[in-house]
Every structure is written in C-alpha cells, then in structure tokens.
Amino acid sequence: MRRLLALALLFSAAVSAQMPKGIYAWWSRPQIARDLNLSPSQREQIRATVQQYRPHLLNVRVAVNQAEQALADQFNRNPVDPAKTNEAIERLVDARSDLTRTLTQLSLKLRLVLNAQQWEELQRRRPVQGNESAPAPESPDQK
C-alpha cells in the first residue's frame, strides 16, 4: 500500500496541472483512497493501472512542456515568424490533446474499478473547480 501511495504521489505531481475539467487525481490522496474502502483487489487494479499509464503520461507531459517552451520562444523572436509560430501552436495543441486523452482514458479505467457507492463518495469529495486542494462544499442534505 505504501508503494502504491508513493507511486501515485509521484505520478500525480507530473499530471496535476493538466487534468481535464471534472477529473482529479483522487488516487494520489491517501485519505480519499482510504475512505473509499477499496478492497485489496481494487487497490491492486488501481496500482497496476497507474503504473501502466505512468511512463506515457510522463512523456506526454514533457512534450507539453517542450511545446509550451517552443511557442514562447517563437513569441519572443523579433520579428515573429507567423508560419513558425503557427507550427508551434499546432504542436502545443496536439501535445495537450494527447495529454487530455491519456488522462481521460486513465480515469475511465480507474472508474471501472469502483462500485457505484465508491463513485458517489468520490464525486462528493471532488474539489471545488480551480482549487484542487479543497473538497467540494457539503450540500444541506449532507449535514
């Protein structure tokens, strides 16, 4: 379990800034994972899935960073070459698209591991949009 949490923390640090809207790295938060009452089989499936996706996600994140830097370099040129800048824009769009696709596919695989009750609990704990560290506010019927 400790290895899973350490791996998940490393993994989430690499992708947290690029999570698609509505998806967050719950698997890297020990308290949430603990509160979901995951079975040993579920923990193993989650660990294996995160390990499977980790290398590709790290590579895609590097590609996004490189594409962002290449675009910044083009904007900082004087004079700006519109053709080269548009190429850099397209590379960045492609890299971000690949990252979003991969994260969403990972999230789908992890969702398939959870039962309905665990999924509902996970949604209840979803952070407020724009503040990944804060849990969602409780609704009046939850108090």
Describe this structure in words.
This protein has 5 helices and no strands. The protein is an all-alpha fold and 143 residues long. Helices cover 68% and strands 0% of the residues. Helix 3 (40-75) packs antiparallel against helix 4 (82-113).
Radius of gyration: 18 Å
Number of helical segments with 4 or more residues: 5
Architecture per CATH nomenclature, i.e. the level-2 architecture: Up-down Bundle
Class by SSE composition:
mainly alpha
Question: How many discrete domains?
Answer: 1
Strands, count:
0
Described by strand count, sense and barrel closure, the largest sheet is: none
- Principal-axes shape call: elongated
Portion in strands: under 5%
- What is the average per-residue confidence, as pLDDT, rounded to a whole number? 80
Report helical residue fraction.
55-70%
Order of helices and strands: HHHHH
How far is it from the N-terminal to the C-terminal residue, by CA? 32 Å
CATH class: Mainly Alpha
Per the CATH scheme, the topology name is Four Helix Bundle (Hemerythrin (Met), subunit A)
Query: Which runs of at least 5 residues are low in confidence (pLDDT < 50)?
Result: 1-17, 132-143
